[in-house]
Amino acid sequence: MSMDYLTAEGLRIDGRRSHELRRIECSMGVLAQADGSAYLEQGNTKVLATVYGPHDMSQKSKIVHNKCVINCQFSAATFSTNERKGRPKGDRRSTEFSHALKHTFVAAVLVELFPRSQIDIYVQVLQADGGIKSTCINAATLAFIDAGIPMRDYVCACSASFIEQQPILDINYAEELCDGPDLTIATLPKSGKIVFLQMDSRLHADNLQKVIDETVKGCSLMHSILDKKIKKTFKPSCIFIHYLV
What we know:
26% of the residues lie in helices and 29% in strands. A 5-stranded mixed β-sheet has the order 1-2-3-5-4. A 4-stranded antiparallel β-sheet has the order 7-6-8-9, with helices on both faces. The chain has 4 helices and 9 strands; from the N terminus they run ββββαβαββαββα. The chain has helices at residues 92-106, 132-146, 173-176, 205-233; strands spanning 24-28, 36-42, 45-56, 69-76, 117-127, 156-163, 166-169, 182-188, 193-200. By secondary structure, the chain is of the alpha+beta class.
């Protein structure tokens, strides 16, 4: 028996409309040992991100003289899903996303301000219910801001799919299981630049652009939500976002 992902009234399984994001809850400075940390919930997906640095390079042979190096590690706790995970980190997908996360934040962090140093970021999924990549990117952004590391802009991410002939934003696990694509985009909201784009499964070219457009709108919605939450936590003068003209 097939599942109906949208009702006749246009409501999804969890009661949202196609363009609505899940509930967002976040806390910053949750780990005193880290230079920056953040806990983020998007719906039932829960992620912890920590940032250490800038600090001296641990491997002198990898020093870059005119900028800092960003190292990223992504992992998922063994209890994050109903499936029993034997290797919560170090598998191919985790390694690939760790590299993608690194390149995403190299595009946003003002790495030239910290030559001959490194910044480490660790992102761990505590509970997975869809939209893992976008939640991790958003949590990492909060952790960088908590660490006071200057950035060109926020990095805001959103996931999407194409279900029953329409784009669906910020998908949950049940929606990931349908036959539609799983698209994740991260942008620098002020410039609109896309710094991360990944899609699992196929989507007809006729529908691709409208799904991308809706996902970018979702990134803008996420920026508005995170910006409000951050400004409740910090004074505006303490947020080191350098908007490039």
